Amino acid sequence: MEAMNTANKGSIGMSPGPILIYGFGPYDEFERNITSDVIDALASLPGLTTITFETRFDRAMFERCLTACRPATIIGLGQHRHARKLRLERRAVNRKGNRGGPLTTIDPQGPAALAVNLHLPDRPFTTVAYDAGTYVCNFSMYVML
User: What is the CATH number of domain 2-144?
Assistant: First the structure.
């Protein structure tokens, strides 16, 4: 899970304004992605924009969403095959790739990493991670930051 506050950099908590929460559809051997179930459960709540993206490296797909929603706060949900707790990912890296494949740069002109600025409290059921990996969760996070 990654959370980004696109307004009021450095603030703690969510800023007033539109909130975008997104997840992903199935990928690899997973016929179901738990994040799409969470998105479905949240879809009827007022004040939220929810979307389930296809699990693919598509910069334009994420940028179109940002343009249409103009969110003040973004919370991205991802499924990690080995996680046993909710991961609060604090940083997206400028690299992408499929498992076992070659890594490529997301933005040749961009920094090596980007940090989120929405701080969620650490709880017994969460763990803080500083590496969002190299798959589509990291890609979406990097593009949307």
Answer: 3.40.630.20
